[in-house]
Amino acid sequence: MVSGPQRMPEIADLPVPVISLFFYYQSWNTNGLVLISRGLACARRAGACPAQQGGAWFLPRLGFKGNAMITLFDRLDATPAFSPEEKAVIESVESLAREKIAPRAEHYDRTGEFPWDNLRAINALGLNAMFVPEAYGGAPLSYAAYLACVRALSEACASTGSIWATNFHAMSPLIDFGSEEQKRRLLPRLAEGALASLAITEPNAGSDATQMKTRFRPEGEEIVVSGGKIFITDGNVADLILLFGKWEGVADPREAISALILEKGTEGFRILRTEKKLGLNACPTAALAFDDCRVPRANLLAGPGKGLPLLLRALNKSRPSVAAHALGIARAAFKDAVAYINERRQSGRRIIEFQGIQFLLADLASELAKTEAMLWHVARLVDRGEADIGIEASILKLSASDLAMRMTTEAVQLFGGYGYIKDFRVERLMRDAKITQIWEGTNQIHRQLIGRSLIEKR
Ligand SMILES: Cc1cc2nc3c(=O)[nH]c(=O)nc-3n(C[C@H](O)[C@H](O)[C@H](O)COP(=O)(O)OP(=O)(O)OC[C@H]3O[C@@H](n4cnc5c(N)ncnc54)[C@H](O)[C@@H]3O)c2cc1C
User: Which pairs from 82-91 meet CB under 8 Å and 24+ separation?
Assistant: First the structure.
């Protein structure tokens, strides 16, 4: 049996700090520039996508040289009939993701700092405006274009993708169900780049939201909010929070669920803590307290009997978005793994030449292609105004998140020992992928919803 390396290690075999040292040393060499470019080419060839580069070398296209995969994924990406304006926006987002966001992803993952410079760059492009109607300061594009942007941002930095997408998840119910006055007052702020959060989960109300305890007590022209929420994405930085609670005095737990918009700075609103997490380290997750917060009645979005239907409708739009986020992560892992095993050699062959590995790649590529096709199918349904798409949204969310987890785990495996160390981004991708199976309905809940839909009514 072969044990140990078959050749002297090349630069591409070396961890990134060693590669950096190599570049540093070579830059003092008389042939410095030539050697630097050779070293870089070698590392690139090996798909040695360092965490510090965040995979920027491979964004946005799948980037395989001269094989059918390019055609396949490019054709899939051409499924939605994007307008020239949409194409221009998507290209701007892809280049922002490639040039600015991906290179900073490792830093934000390591430090857990909120990526304000990424958000400033996103707002400089005016991206929130793409989901706000024109009458309220927006410049609306299709839902498919929105999903393409979520996917591109998430491929570069899953934390940043999630922060931006949360604005949409939280505020699409205001766009769809808010009163004229509410939209005129609040949506221009969103279009200009306000951050938003969606607050449903409580310590004893996770998969079963009807168990929530946060209370809404009407008092004249105000609603007094008391209670707390946990696990709220961006809850510590949000300007606007779409908050779910139960209307006092309504006995039926489903009927009691109501929703209002709580604005930053409301007296009695406290941030209790932000969580330390496995992944998505730069996307904050906050525990929030509401100590008799007085919210103007004008901010009530859905009173008793209307909150739960609003929530379920909103999920039909946020779940495909969560799928686009997961697909961004899955794409990044797929690219890195394929590039790496095209170069990495063991037992006298490139890893990709082993048939067992080809079978694995075939399965992963097929799953990716099928799930991306499903993404555009659901996007088309939303864009043509179909409301009853709960099962499609569940199938998409389930498939994309399971794929992201599998893809990233296999990518770490295909990198061998290098996959387990932090010099390459695949380990971050694997940590970032896990949440996609948990939030927006755990995958068990989605399996339950899909399975239940097949029961014949008798
Ligand atoms: C990083 C992060 C960010 C989040 N962001 C937000 C946010 O912005 N806003 C928000 O409101 N929430 C957010 N959440 C909460 C998230 O949506 C919940 O964690 C999720 O819905 C699961 O609820 P739970 O954690 O209470 O788990 P539980 O509901 O207690 O579930 C525990 C386990 O039991 C399983 N289970 C539960 N019920 C069933 C069932 N009927 N059948 C089979 N299995 C079942 C679950 O699948 C899971 O495996 C976030 C969570 C995290 C970790």
Answer: 82/142, 82/144, 82/145, 82/148, 83/141, 83/142, 85/141, 86/141, 86/142, 86/144, 86/145, 89/125, 89/127, 89/130, 89/141, 89/145, 89/149, 90/145, 90/148, 90/149, 90/152
CA 441 to ligand 1 center in whole angstroms: 6
Q: Is 142 in the pocket of ligand 1 (CB under 6 A)?
A: no
Question: Which residues does the annotation mark as catalytic?
Answer: 440
CA distance 81 to 76: 11
What is the rounded distance in angstroms from the CA atom of residue 289 to the CA atom of residue 420?
A: 38
∠ CA 117-121-122 to the nearest 5 degrees? 115
Protein residue whose Cα sits closest to atom 23 of ligand 1: 206
Write the DSSP symbol of residue 13. G
Pairwise CA distance, residues 377 & 396, whole Å: 10
Tell me if 236 CB under 6 Å of ligand 1: no
pLDDT value at 67 more than 80 = no
In terms of pTM, does the model score above 0.85?
yes
**Structural domains of the chain sorted by starting position, each given as residue range(s) with its CATH number in brackets:** 11-58 (no CATH), 74-193 (1.10.540.10), 197-305 (2.40.110.10)
Kind and range of the H or E element at 257? strand 257-263
Beta strand 222-233 pairing with 215-219 = antiparallel
Cα(107) to centroid(ligand 1), Å: 28
Cis, peptide link before residue 140, omega less than 30° from 0: no
Q: Residue 11 has what pLDDT?
A: 39
- Using one digit for the tens of pLDDT, what is the confidence trace for 177-221? 999 999 999 999 999 999 999 999 999 999 999 999 999 999 999
Structure tokens at 118: 């990424």
